[in-house]
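_Backbone structure tokens_
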Amino acid sequence: MPVRLRLNIMMFLQFFVWGVFFVTMGGYLAELFADDESVNSIIASCYATQTWAALFAPLIVGYVGDRLMNKEQLNGILHLLGAGLLYWVSTTTDATEIFWGLLGFFICYMPTLALVNTITFQNVDNIETDFPKIRLWGTIGWIAAGLTVSQSLFGLAPFPVLGGIENAGGTAVQFQLAAAVSGFYGVFSFLLPASPPEGRGQNVDLVKVLGFDALNLMKNPSYLIFAVSSFLICIPLAFYYSRTGDFVSKVHFGDQTGGVMALGQVSEIFFMALVPFFLSRLGVKKMLLVGMLAWALRYALFGLLPSQAAMVVLGIAMHGICYDFFFVTGQLYTDRVAPREMRTSAQALVGLLTYGAGMLVGNYVAGAWGDRIELDPTKEGWLVGAKQFWLMPSLFAVAIAAIFYGLFRDDSQAPEVSQGNGEDNAALEGA
């Protein structure tokens, strides 16, 4: 099998495993623990397992993958272990066991996000031109996962690929499907091109592995404002990842939710191509500001017009602006201001601040807020509580955007931005 084809399949499976349950898991948990007064906190803590794991991922990749064993072998082992843990999650209805099962899975899964990138880097001729095309198959895999679990083509037409199974996204079937694909992917990983450890024999520098040497960038006042704003904006952002699936399912689309939510990734592909165009014209500050305000607008649509299906879909379709304009631009800005020898560490630090610390805090805030306002995750409960639930993170995002606009000054030199560079940095994405 050609190397390029194997790498494309790798990326497709990598994000299929994650996407097939992560979007719809909230609705399943809401039904499973509907009678528990802490249902919102249970959902939030289960989604927080991904962010807890993101904090530990650099250690596994930076030590084991860079120094001890081939990356494709480590990828295979981690996905086989993850398959077993996902299957265990599908067999239990105990909240504590589901939490620990998901935490174990994500501790295995999150390091593989970096592994598949480095496997690709080691096995292509031109990273800048080849990687974006291969990484695109990851987004396609996420979209395919949503269509599969919902058995719907974006909510427009049936897509009955799981014969005899109804509402897979609302049952433990979603975990079983993810486990089966993860198991297959684990075996397939051993057939990937050899990617030996490149740091074998070198001393382990924990400071660099975690990206903490990039803290020197905080001496730049503008970068400090950017870093703090990135952490803070990820607090309201976590509301989307943990609760939108349940909200969309209960209010409008039911078992077609996964397919409808996949529109966000379609939008992401479209706006990714436009990042270079807008960045060259708007600059870093305005791009980041638009990204922040897009999150606020999305939540306002959810909160003020929850009964309008078209407005909810519009909020989902804004994902390309929300994600690409903020995260990708932020990664490009970091690459621009960081010294060459510190660029990897700087990207790792941004990941810890956003996908790690920011999202982690945000998940628990979302859970606590849902319990405080006594949000009832039913259709009637969402219609009544949507305004109070979604406007809080919307206003939070507006406040952060205002502070960022007033304090941030982009004093970096404008780079020559290309589509390839934009998508290269998008590899740090989670969905």
User: Anything to note?
Assistant: The chain has a mean pLDDT of 86. Residues 222 and 409 are 6 Å apart (CA to CA). The chain is about 75% helix and 0% strand. The chain has one domain: 3-192+208-428.
